[in-house]
Specification:
Strand content: 35-45%
Number of strands: 5
Structural class: alpha+beta
CATH class: Mainly Beta
Number of domains: 1
Number of helices: 1
CATH topology: OB fold (Dihydrolipoamide Acetyltransferase, E2P)
Low-confidence stretches: 10-21
Order of helices and strands: HEEEEE
Helix content: 10-25%
Mean pLDDT: 84
Shape: globular
CATH superfamily: Copper binding periplasmic protein CusF
Strand order of the largest sheet: 1-2-3-5-4
Largest sheet: 5 strands, mixed, barrel
Radius of gyration: 15 Å
Length: 100
C-alpha cells in the first residue's frame, strides 16, 4: 500500500510541475499545423520529438477528440497539444491550442 501511495505522490508531483499537461494526457507535443480537415476531425502536424512516447520529430495525421477545438487553429500555425491513447484509434489529440 505504501509503495502505491509513493508512486501516486510522484505522479501527482510530476503533473503539478507541468503546466500544459492535462491529467488524462499520455504526452504533450509542439509542432506546426500543415493541414486541417474539420469534417473528418483530423489535423496534420509536423511535431517535435515527443519524449514521453519515445517518438522522434515527424509529420503525421492526428484525430482530434473534439473537432470544435479546430476552430481556432490555422494551417502554418505553431501549436501545443495533448495526446491520449484510445483503444480503438490509438493516440488522439485531447486538446490543441496556439503555442505561446
Amino acid at each position: 500500500m505504501r509503495k502505491k501511495l509513493n508512486i501516486l505522490i510522484s505522479v501527482l508531483a510530476m503533473l503539478a510541475g507541468s503546466s500544459n499537461l492535462y491529467a488524462a494526457d499520455a504526452a504533450t507535443g509542439q509542432g506546426t499545423v500543415n493541414k486541417i480537415d474539420a469534417t473528418a476531425a483530423t489535423v496534420n502536424i509536423s511535431h517535435e520529438d515527443i519524449p514521453a512516447l519515445k517518438w522522434p520529430g515527424m509529420t503525421m495525421d492526428f484525430k482530434v477528440a473534439d473537432k470544435k477545438q479546430l476552430a481556432n487553429i490555422k494551417a502554418g500555425q505553431k501549436v501545443s497539444f495533448g495526446l491520449v491513447k484510445e483503444p480503438a484509434s490509438g493516440y488522439v489529440i485531447s486538446h490543441i491550442e496556439p503555442a505561446k
